[in-house]
Amino acid sequence: MNVQTLERPRTAPANAAPFFSCRGLDAYYGDSYVVQNVSFALEKGQILALLGRNGAGKTSTLRAIARASTPELRSGEVVLDGVALHGKPNYVAARAGIQLVQEDRRIIPGLTVEENLQLSIISGERGWSFERIYQLFPRLAERRKQEGVTMSGGEQQMLAIARALARDVKLLLLDEPYEGLAPVVRHDIAKALMEVREAGITTIIVEQNAVAALNLSDRAVILDTGEVAFDGTAKEVLESEDLMYKYLAI
Length: 250
Ligand SMILES: Nc1ncnc2c1ncn2[C@@H]1O[C@H](COP(=O)(O)OP(=O)(O)OP(=O)(O)O)[C@@H](O)[C@H]1O
Description:
One of its GO terms (molecular function) is ATP binding. InterPro entries: AAA+_ATPase, ABC_transporter-like_ATP-bd, ABC_transporter-like_CS, BCAA_Transport_ATP-bd_LivF, P-loop_NTPase. It holds the Pfam family ABC_tran. Keywords: Amino-acid transport, ATP-binding, Nucleotide-binding, Transport. The chain is an alpha/beta fold. It has a single domain, classed as P-loop containing nucleotide triphosphate hydrolases (Rossmann fold, 3-Layer(aba) Sandwich), CATH 3.40.50.300. 34% of the residues lie in helices and 26% in strands. The chain has 10 helices and 10 strands. The relative contact order is 0.17. It binds adenosine-5'-triphosphate (ATP). The site of adenosine-5'-triphosphate has 12 residues, from strand 2 and helix 1.
């Protein structure tokens, strides 16, 4: 019998809508125009490094995508998995799968590691089981009864990522995940993020340590005074002294 096997396409068809896209984002703090016509798109499971010098607008872009109340998004589109979110408040974006892990990690004082996880799933769809999360971060498993804020910076960063995974995250936004962390801890977090990618979760990383972020990423977008100055592969940036020098001061 002649059995025909259908090969699955390796990439989405050219005319298929991307898994995530932002288009023409314009966001302001009062009169200050900080995100200027920013557009980019991502396929499911890709990691994007969102880079640029201090004040380039990286955090503001992440916040606009997460539909935070500031900066104010005055125009542009945010679409995740076919759902338009630009006209929606933060909690709707969160329920649709956008989880922002902020630079200050937002661990809740007075609560243990596990209580912090429990609190994150009170509203919204459940994502990874605690068991799966503890497999990803064994250090959190060992400390599940410890008050979250008493942990090291690296462990708190793991908990902040874990809280996003406990919900049904489709687009993980990480603001400076390596900040203040020793190289060995960064390595643990990078390893976990590779596993998160294997699980099909799409991620955007804002990181001062551009090389570390690029080493993890498929794609890179560089912002310069609020505008997109480069959109391409992470490899292109790593191999371009010009881009590194001009926009990243490396
Ligand atoms: N809450 C705010 N109110 C007013 N202006 C702000 C606010 N937050 C940031 N800005 C300004 O918006 C611009 C973009 O800041 P943003 O934090 O997005 O940049 P960034 O690229 O993330 O910088 P960094 O790498 O230093 O964190 C900067 O000029 C900054 O001073």
